[in-house]
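Homework help board

Subject: predicted structure for assignment chain

Our instructor gave us this sequence and asked us to write out the predicted structure in token form, then describe one feature. I got the tokens but I'm not sure how to describe them. Can anyone check?
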Amino acid sequence: MWTEIDNSLCRSFRFADFRTAFAFLTEVAAEAERLDHHPWFSNEYNAVEFRLRTHDAGNTVTRRDHRLAAAIDAVAARYATPPS
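My token output:
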């Protein structure tokens, strides 16, 4: 589940291994480009963490962040990733 913390939508994902996590991030990058909204993320081995907020709106959560969160969830579903 996405949670709102410090004016950001946050969520973490875990994958089977680094290769899968990186493939997931590659697909998320394509979605971010399509939506013209680029997230902060961290990746360490099989763990990926996101923080979404809109800089143009004073670093707050906007509809753009919710759209990107939904797109990230759709990508994660293709990798059969349970929420973490």
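Reply (TA_rk): Your tokens look well-formed. For the description, you could write something like this. Residues 2 and 35 are 19 Å apart (CA to CA). That's the kind of observation they're looking for.
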